[in-house]
Amino acid sequence: MYLAEQLVEEENKDMIKGFDWYLLPVLNPDGYEYSHKTHRLWRKTRSKTSNPFCDGVDLNRNFGFHWMEGGASGNPCSEVYAGREPFSEPESRAMRDFLQTKMPNVKGFLTFHSYGQLVLSPWGYTKTLPEDHDELVRMASIYTSAVASENNIRYTVGSTSNELYIASGGSDDWAKGVAGIPYAYTVELRDTGRNGFLLPSSQIIPVGRETWSGLRAFTKELDRLANQGNIRLELGRNDPEPSPGQMGKSANPRFSSKVSLP
């Protein structure tokens, strides 16, 4: 909500001239409510599964791109249960369907998680890097440099699988591999482990400020590239075509892309 407030401030009107912003505060509202009322560290959705004693699906494993190819579980009682099929959850389907109405015009996708102080790029399902990995790192480093200039908080840049672990079915992998969004990232916010998931409320505003600084720098660079015609979206293959099961039911044809600069 801090980001939304910043976008409507007069001093930031330049940030909305060249881009449409789509903000989704919470993708998992039922799980979010449950985490505040019942189980503070609840991670998954609240949908029923085949096991009457284990509810919920990990949305970070439910997107239909190389689904269940590593770092995910078919056990409903697992914290990383990927669901009975790709896009089994209404939450992941809603995001997929919305983004597909905007394609191929979306150029940046950032999903914010906690914790670790990381900016993670695809891929999560494999340690093999996409062809435009260096460009993804360059853009992410612009973000992290701006964050550091705000509060001297340092973020690490790298691919999900190499900086953390193999995790298939993530929204950022789907955003780049299927939706063709050239700059797709997962941002793991503060901290690095002292407070972990239970970050003190006193840090909410500082995190908001540094995140906004990162987004400003990231968006300005994206705007510069677009205005100079330096972003070329090569609609081809930068990853093997997923099977229908990986795509998910009723998925549209993919807009696979890589970013290259002259």
UniProtKB/TrEMBL annotation:
<keyword id="KW-0479">Metal-binding</keyword>
<keyword id="KW-0645">Protease</keyword>
<dbReference type="GO" id="GO:0004181">
    <property type="term" value="F:metallocarboxypeptidase activity"/>
</dbReference>
<keyword id="KW-0121">Carboxypeptidase</keyword>
<protein>
    <recommendedName>
        <fullName>Peptidase M14 domain-containing protein</fullName>
    </recommendedName>
</protein>
<dbReference type="GO" id="GO:0005615">
    <property type="term" value="C:extracellular space"/>
</dbReference>
<dbReference type="InterPro" id="IPR000834">
    <property type="entry name" value="Peptidase_M14"/>
</dbReference>
<feature type="active site" description="Proton donor/acceptor">
    <location>
        <position position="188"/>
    </location>
</feature>
<feature type="region of interest" description="Disordered">
    <location>
        <begin position="231"/>
        <end position="262"/>
    </location>
</feature>
<comment type="similarity">
    <text>Belongs to the peptidase M14 family.</text>
</comment>
<dbReference type="GO" id="GO:0006508">
    <property type="term" value="P:proteolysis"/>
</dbReference>
<keyword id="KW-0482">Metalloprotease</keyword>
<feature type="domain" description="Peptidase M14">
    <location>
        <begin position="1"/>
        <end position="222"/>
    </location>
</feature>
<keyword id="KW-0732">Signal</keyword>
<dbReference type="Pfam" id="PF00246">
    <property type="entry name" value="Peptidase_M14"/>
</dbReference>
<keyword id="KW-0378">Hydrolase</keyword>
<keyword id="KW-0862">Zinc</keyword>
<feature type="compositionally biased region" description="Polar residues">
    <location>
        <begin position="253"/>
        <end position="262"/>
    </location>
</feature>
<dbReference type="GO" id="GO:0008270">
    <property type="term" value="F:zinc ion binding"/>
</dbReference>
